[in-house]
Specification:
Elements (H helix, E strand, L loop, with lengths): L20 H18 L2 H15 L8 H9 L3 E5 L2 E4 L1 H17 L1
Antiparallel strand pairs: 1-2
Amino acid sequence: MACNCDLRTKLVGDGCSICNPALAADLNAEHQTEVLAQMSEEEKRAALRFCETCDDDEGYDVPRLMMKRLEALGLVGDKKFGRFEQTDLLLDIRETLEATVAAAT
């Protein structure tokens, strides 16, 4: 569906995620599913471990190479100087990750 937004005249269409929040939600859910399908069990455990370390405000113990992999997946952001932060994507899929990892053990 093509969007008929016209930012010059402020006419709003319904074919883009800005004009149609439901479309944005659908795209986000699809992206979450794709990321989860790409992740190995080790990456899922590492992502959860990083979440846990963010919750307790102490240093994290996830290896840097794994953090870079999580960054490539869009789950963490590199704040430089050895600091990382959770992305909205990681926060959105956390419960699913917890259920998946729990089922695998």
